[in-house]
Design goal:
With about 280 residues, this protein is mainly alpha-helical. The protein has 14 helices and no strands.
Length: about 280
Amino acid sequence: MSLTKKNNIFPGFGLSLGYTIVYLSLIVLIPLSAVVLKTTSLTFPAFIDAVASPRVLASYRLSFGMALFAGLINTFFGLLLAWALVRYTFIGKNLVDALVDLPFALPTAVTGIALAALYSKNGWIGQYIEPLGIKIAFTPWGVLVALIFIGLPFVVRTVQPILEEIEIELEEASASLGASRWQTFRRVVIPILLPALITGFALAFARAVGEYGSVIFIAGNIPMVSEITPLMIITKLEQYDYAGATAIASVMLLISLLLLLAINGLQAWTAQRTGRAR
Protein backbone atom coordinates (compact mmCIF):
# COMPACT_ATOMS: atom_id res chain seq x y z
CA MET A 1 0.00 0.00 0.00
CA SER A 2 1.38 3.41 -0.93
CA LEU A 3 2.16 6.08 1.67
CA THR A 4 -0.62 8.32 0.29
CA LYS A 5 -3.29 5.64 0.68
CA LYS A 6 -2.03 4.77 4.13
CA ASN A 7 -2.39 8.37 5.27
CA ASN A 8 -5.90 8.69 3.80
CA ILE A 9 -7.58 6.11 6.04
CA PHE A 10 -9.51 8.88 7.80
CA PRO A 11 -12.36 10.47 5.80
CA GLY A 12 -11.74 14.11 5.00
CA PHE A 13 -8.01 14.01 5.67
CA GLY A 14 -7.20 16.18 2.66
CA LEU A 15 -9.83 18.75 3.59
CA SER A 16 -8.69 18.81 7.22
CA LEU A 17 -5.06 19.24 6.23
CA GLY A 18 -5.92 22.04 3.82
CA TYR A 19 -8.02 23.81 6.43
CA THR A 20 -5.20 23.48 8.97
CA ILE A 21 -2.64 24.98 6.60
CA VAL A 22 -4.92 27.87 5.63
CA TYR A 23 -5.85 28.55 9.24
CA LEU A 24 -2.23 28.56 10.43
CA SER A 25 -1.25 30.79 7.52
CA LEU A 26 -3.94 33.36 8.32
CA ILE A 27 -3.44 33.34 12.09
CA VAL A 28 0.31 32.77 12.43
CA LEU A 29 2.42 32.84 9.28
CA ILE A 30 1.00 35.92 7.53
CA PRO A 31 1.15 38.22 10.62
CA LEU A 32 4.70 37.09 11.39
CA SER A 33 5.69 37.59 7.76
CA ALA A 34 4.22 41.10 7.88
CA VAL A 35 6.41 41.89 10.89
CA VAL A 36 9.53 40.75 9.05
CA LEU A 37 8.57 42.56 5.83
CA LYS A 38 7.96 45.81 7.70
CA THR A 39 11.42 45.50 9.21
CA THR A 40 13.00 45.31 5.74
CA SER A 41 12.01 48.94 5.16
CA LEU A 42 14.89 49.91 7.46
CA THR A 43 18.42 50.28 6.20
CA PHE A 44 20.97 48.04 7.87
CA PRO A 45 22.51 50.83 10.00
CA ALA A 46 19.01 51.92 11.07
CA PHE A 47 18.13 48.31 11.91
CA ILE A 48 21.24 47.90 14.05
CA ASP A 49 20.54 51.20 15.78
CA ALA A 50 16.98 50.09 16.55
CA VAL A 51 17.74 46.61 17.87
CA ALA A 52 21.17 47.09 19.45
CA SER A 53 20.94 50.34 21.39
CA PRO A 54 22.07 50.02 25.03
CA ARG A 55 18.51 50.45 26.30
CA VAL A 56 17.15 47.72 24.04
CA LEU A 57 20.01 45.34 24.82
CA ALA A 58 19.31 45.82 28.52
CA SER A 59 15.67 44.91 27.90
CA TYR A 60 16.75 41.71 26.07
CA ARG A 61 18.89 40.67 29.02
CA LEU A 62 16.06 41.33 31.45
CA SER A 63 13.29 39.66 29.43
CA PHE A 64 15.15 36.53 28.37
CA GLY A 65 17.19 36.22 31.55
CA MET A 66 14.21 36.48 33.89
CA ALA A 67 12.09 34.25 31.62
CA LEU A 68 14.79 31.58 31.79
CA PHE A 69 15.17 31.96 35.56
CA ALA A 70 11.39 31.86 36.10
CA GLY A 71 11.07 28.81 33.85
CA LEU A 72 13.68 26.90 35.87
CA ILE A 73 12.05 27.85 39.18
CA ASN A 74 8.62 26.86 37.89
CA THR A 75 9.96 23.54 36.62
CA PHE A 76 11.22 22.62 40.09
CA PHE A 77 8.30 23.85 42.15
CA GLY A 78 5.76 22.84 39.50
CA LEU A 79 7.03 19.26 39.79
CA LEU A 80 6.67 19.39 43.58
CA LEU A 81 3.15 20.78 43.34
CA ALA A 82 2.07 18.25 40.71
CA TRP A 83 3.57 15.44 42.81
CA ALA A 84 1.61 16.57 45.88
CA LEU A 85 -1.64 16.81 43.92
CA VAL A 86 -1.26 13.37 42.36
CA ARG A 87 0.32 11.31 45.13
CA TYR A 88 -1.26 12.69 48.32
CA THR A 89 -4.71 13.31 49.74
CA PHE A 90 -5.10 16.30 52.04
CA ILE A 91 -7.70 18.78 53.20
CA GLY A 92 -8.28 21.47 50.56
CA LYS A 93 -6.71 19.47 47.73
CA ASN A 94 -9.48 20.36 45.29
CA LEU A 95 -9.10 24.03 46.19
CA VAL A 96 -5.35 23.94 45.61
CA ASP A 97 -5.90 22.14 42.30
CA ALA A 98 -8.32 24.87 41.21
CA LEU A 99 -6.00 27.67 42.35
CA VAL A 100 -3.27 26.35 40.04
CA ASP A 101 -5.33 27.56 37.08
CA LEU A 102 -5.96 31.01 38.59
CA PRO A 103 -3.20 32.72 36.54
CA PHE A 104 -4.99 31.49 33.40
CA ALA A 105 -8.26 33.11 34.47
CA LEU A 106 -7.00 36.42 35.86
CA PRO A 107 -6.55 39.34 33.45
CA THR A 108 -2.86 40.15 33.28
CA ALA A 109 -3.44 43.73 34.42
CA VAL A 110 -5.21 42.46 37.54
CA THR A 111 -2.27 40.17 38.24
CA GLY A 112 0.21 43.01 37.93
CA ILE A 113 -1.78 45.36 40.15
CA ALA A 114 -2.27 42.65 42.78
CA LEU A 115 1.43 41.77 42.87
CA ALA A 116 2.43 45.43 43.03
CA ALA A 117 0.02 45.97 45.92
CA LEU A 118 1.44 42.97 47.77
CA TYR A 119 5.13 43.75 47.33
CA SER A 120 5.14 47.55 47.38
CA LYS A 121 6.61 49.39 50.35
CA ASN A 122 3.24 49.57 52.11
CA GLY A 123 1.93 46.25 50.80
CA TRP A 124 0.98 43.21 52.85
CA ILE A 125 4.32 41.54 52.16
CA GLY A 126 6.49 44.50 51.19
CA GLN A 127 6.05 46.29 54.52
CA TYR A 128 7.80 43.37 56.24
CA ILE A 129 10.56 42.51 53.78
CA GLU A 130 11.68 45.99 52.70
CA PRO A 131 13.01 46.89 56.18
CA LEU A 132 15.18 43.77 55.80
CA GLY A 133 16.68 45.21 52.61
CA ILE A 134 14.64 43.01 50.29
CA LYS A 135 12.89 45.11 47.66
CA ILE A 136 10.69 43.34 45.13
CA ALA A 137 8.27 45.88 43.66
CA PHE A 138 9.63 48.20 40.97
CA THR A 139 12.85 46.21 40.56
CA PRO A 140 13.93 43.38 38.24
CA TRP A 141 12.95 40.96 41.03
CA GLY A 142 9.39 42.13 40.60
CA VAL A 143 9.59 40.99 36.98
CA LEU A 144 10.73 37.57 38.17
CA VAL A 145 7.85 37.28 40.65
CA ALA A 146 5.30 38.13 37.96
CA LEU A 147 6.78 35.64 35.49
CA ILE A 148 6.80 32.87 38.09
CA PHE A 149 3.16 33.56 38.88
CA ILE A 150 1.95 33.37 35.29
CA GLY A 151 4.18 30.42 34.28
CA LEU A 152 3.59 27.92 37.09
CA PRO A 153 0.34 26.40 35.69
CA PHE A 154 2.07 25.41 32.44
CA VAL A 155 4.47 23.12 34.27
CA VAL A 156 1.92 21.68 36.69
CA ARG A 157 -0.67 20.89 34.02
CA THR A 158 1.96 19.36 31.74
CA VAL A 159 3.53 17.11 34.36
CA GLN A 160 0.37 16.14 36.25
CA PRO A 161 -1.15 13.78 33.60
CA ILE A 162 2.17 11.95 33.16
CA LEU A 163 2.47 11.46 36.91
CA GLU A 164 -1.03 10.01 36.99
CA GLU A 165 -0.06 7.48 34.30
CA ILE A 166 3.05 6.21 36.10
CA GLU A 167 2.31 2.79 37.55
CA ILE A 168 3.07 2.48 41.25
CA GLU A 169 4.26 -1.06 40.54
CA LEU A 170 7.38 0.38 38.87
CA GLU A 171 8.38 2.15 42.05
CA GLU A 172 7.52 -0.90 44.17
CA ALA A 173 9.65 -3.09 41.91
CA SER A 174 12.54 -0.65 42.26
CA ALA A 175 12.18 -0.66 46.04
CA SER A 176 12.01 -4.47 46.13
CA LEU A 177 15.35 -4.57 44.28
CA GLY A 178 16.95 -2.55 47.06
CA ALA A 179 16.77 0.97 45.64
CA SER A 180 16.28 3.84 48.05
CA ARG A 181 13.47 6.36 47.60
CA TRP A 182 15.89 8.87 46.07
CA GLN A 183 17.34 6.26 43.69
CA THR A 184 13.85 5.23 42.63
CA PHE A 185 12.86 8.84 42.03
CA ARG A 186 16.04 9.65 40.14
CA ARG A 187 16.32 6.50 38.02
CA VAL A 188 12.70 5.49 37.50
CA VAL A 189 10.40 8.50 37.88
CA ILE A 190 12.52 11.37 36.56
CA PRO A 191 13.39 9.69 33.21
CA ILE A 192 9.67 9.19 32.57
CA LEU A 193 8.83 12.76 33.56
CA LEU A 194 11.75 14.45 31.80
CA PRO A 195 10.05 15.06 28.40
CA ALA A 196 7.00 16.53 30.17
CA LEU A 197 9.22 18.69 32.38
CA ILE A 198 11.02 20.06 29.32
CA THR A 199 7.68 20.74 27.62
CA GLY A 200 6.37 22.54 30.69
CA PHE A 201 9.56 24.59 30.90
CA ALA A 202 9.29 25.52 27.22
CA LEU A 203 5.67 26.65 27.61
CA ALA A 204 6.42 28.66 30.75
CA PHE A 205 9.48 30.22 29.13
CA ALA A 206 7.62 31.14 25.93
CA ARG A 207 4.79 32.74 27.90
CA ALA A 208 7.23 34.65 30.12
CA VAL A 209 9.26 36.11 27.25
CA GLY A 210 6.23 37.83 25.74
CA GLU A 211 4.44 38.73 28.98
CA TYR A 212 3.48 42.39 29.26
CA GLY A 213 0.38 43.19 31.31
CA SER A 214 1.31 41.52 34.58
CA VAL A 215 4.90 42.83 34.48
CA ILE A 216 4.66 46.55 33.78
CA PHE A 217 2.77 47.30 37.00
CA ILE A 218 5.34 45.71 39.28
CA ALA A 219 8.53 46.28 37.25
CA GLY A 220 8.73 50.04 37.67
CA ASN A 221 9.83 50.37 34.03
CA ILE A 222 13.10 52.10 34.89
CA PRO A 223 15.28 52.55 31.77
CA MET A 224 18.29 50.22 31.68
CA VAL A 225 17.08 48.55 34.89
CA SER A 226 13.56 47.12 34.75
CA GLU A 227 12.28 47.70 31.22
CA ILE A 228 11.15 44.54 29.43
CA THR A 229 11.40 44.13 25.67
CA PRO A 230 7.62 44.11 25.03
CA LEU A 231 7.51 47.53 26.71
CA MET A 232 10.19 48.77 24.30
CA ILE A 233 8.01 47.63 21.41
CA ILE A 234 4.99 49.46 22.83
CA THR A 235 7.13 52.58 23.34
CA LYS A 236 8.22 52.50 19.69
CA LEU A 237 4.61 52.14 18.57
CA GLU A 238 3.54 55.10 20.71
CA GLN A 239 6.26 57.12 18.98
CA TYR A 240 4.90 55.98 15.59
CA ASP A 241 8.18 54.23 14.90
CA TYR A 242 6.53 51.17 13.42
CA ALA A 243 9.63 49.92 11.64
CA GLY A 244 11.67 50.17 14.85
CA ALA A 245 8.98 48.28 16.75
CA THR A 246 8.86 45.49 14.18
CA ALA A 247 12.67 45.33 14.15
CA ILE A 248 12.76 44.63 17.89
CA ALA A 249 9.86 42.21 17.50
CA SER A 250 11.73 40.37 14.74
CA VAL A 251 14.80 39.95 16.93
CA MET A 252 12.61 38.62 19.76
CA LEU A 253 10.91 36.29 17.32
CA LEU A 254 14.21 34.95 16.01
CA ILE A 255 15.73 34.42 19.47
CA SER A 256 12.55 32.79 20.79
CA LEU A 257 12.30 30.52 17.74
CA LEU A 258 15.91 29.36 18.08
CA LEU A 259 15.51 28.70 21.80
CA LEU A 260 12.26 26.79 21.30
CA LEU A 261 13.79 24.73 18.50
CA ALA A 262 16.67 23.83 20.81
CA ILE A 263 14.26 22.93 23.62
CA ASN A 264 12.10 20.82 21.29
CA GLY A 265 15.20 19.05 20.02
CA LEU A 266 16.24 18.32 23.60
CA GLN A 267 12.73 17.08 24.36
CA ALA A 268 12.78 14.72 21.36
CA TRP A 269 16.20 13.44 22.36
CA THR A 270 15.15 12.76 25.96
CA ALA A 271 11.91 11.11 24.79
CA GLN A 272 13.90 8.80 22.54
CA ARG A 273 16.42 8.02 25.29
CA THR A 274 13.68 7.20 27.80
CA GLY A 275 11.68 5.16 25.31
CA ARG A 276 8.69 7.53 25.23
CA ALA A 277 9.12 8.77 21.67
CA ARG A 278 5.90 9.16 19.76
